[in-house]
Amino acid sequence: MLMTVADLHRVSAVPLSPGRRRPAWLYRWLYERTGSVLGAITTKAKSSGIGLWEAAKVSREVEESGELMRAFFEDLASDRDGVANTVREAISSPNLPIWVDDTEAVLTLRRCLTSPEQVDALARFVREMVCTAQHSALVAIDGGSASAEVGRLQLTDDHGHPLDGALHELYIGYLFDTGRMT
């Protein structure tokens, strides 16, 4: 059974009497059950000069940031995927959807796109353009656009840890990993 960072954090929360140390068997037990997690936490503690248990807490927060980033990417991917269905609905439904702002554009497309294959091609193209816009926004957040000369936006989690580090590349990787992009 591999112990998670959350398990390690729960164990670390057990209070000790003043002057007492955790027994050696506990460290061996933790090491046997945490594998590389404990190694990473120990390295974090040594490199930053903080205690092992504080490093475990930081690692747990970083793990939560990773979960938040995956959830954020899933929101973006769902929006990207949903736009294709939205296009299909606007072009193919008998009545013009109430959310359509530019009715003339939709009516023109309805006259031009006469087969389901044509409607599907437009839906896939719009989905691709949405992905391009999302990617461009993430590049700007990552500091890879002209706005970076003025300042930089930063996304942070609830703990104040930044969600950064090539978000635009990580998002495209997420699309590949989830089978949405080939």
Describe the fold and architecture:
The chain is built from seven helices and no strands. It has helices at 5-12, 24-34, 36-48, 52-92, 103-112, 116-141, 167-177. Helix 3 (36-48) crosses helix 4 (52-92). The two termini are 35 Å apart.
pLDDT < 50 stretches? 22-32, 34-38
Distance between the termini: 35 Å
Counted by DSSP, the helix tally is 7
**Overall tally of structural domains:** 1
Overall body shape:
elongated
- Main beta sheet strand tally, sense and closure: none
Assembly status: single chain
Mean of the pLDDT scores?
A: 76
Q: Over all CA atoms, what is the radius of gyration? A: 25 Å
Tell me roughly what share of residues is in helical segments. 55-70%
* SSE pattern, N- to C-terminal: HHHHHHH
Instruction: Give the structural class.
Output: mainly alpha
How many E strands?
0
- Taken as a percent bin, the fraction of beta residues is under 5%
Topology of this protein?
Elements: H1 5-12, H2 24-34, H3 36-48, H4 52-92, H5 103-112, H6 116-141, H7 167-177
Helix pairs in contact: 1-4, 3-4, 4-6, 6-7
